[in-house]
Amino acid sequence: MKVLDKTILDTLEKNQPRNVTELVQLVQKQVDASLEDIKNEIKSLHQKGLVSLEEPTALKETFKDFISPQNSRWFWIIIGVSIVSFVSVISIPETGNPLSYLRYVFAFVLVAFLPGYCLTETLFPKETELDIIERFAFSLGLSFAITALVGLFLSFTPLRLTLGTSLSALGSVVIVLAVAALIRKYKTQ
Prior knowledge:
By secondary structure, the protein is mainly α. The protein is about 70% helix and about 0% strand. It has 2 domains: about 5-50; about 65-185, no CATH class. The protein has 9 helices and no strands. The radius of gyration is 28 Å and the shape is rod-shaped.
């Protein structure tokens, strides 16, 4: 084996350069060879199967970029719907008002869909893991389970199970699960 080949292979093993440019620079410090000779020798080693050259991977976007409304629209929709649900249940009177139907719709979404959807997104962060029907079915089933557990938990606390405590607890669960799903999606991108 030539001295240049041995130097390239030793440098790869010891220094583990991130790219070919870094490898060439490290080898150039060790041997008296031209830049072109080193590149040709690396190509030769690649053709022989002794060196593996891979395309550079795309840089992972930062969490700040990932959380932007363009990239994580679903997260901001969940937070917005949660806030609107909370406000509508608190501020719209229960009866005698045409807006009370809006209150019922938002309350139903908060109880029957959002907690399960956020948990489903946390458990299955990749879009390819479940199709839309499965996500919807999981969301409904898990929402009722989470809502029941929140109600059971509140009934055993000194706070008792009231509209205010259940709404606050369920809203908090939705937001915590949405943040957990956002973090999981970021890590699996």
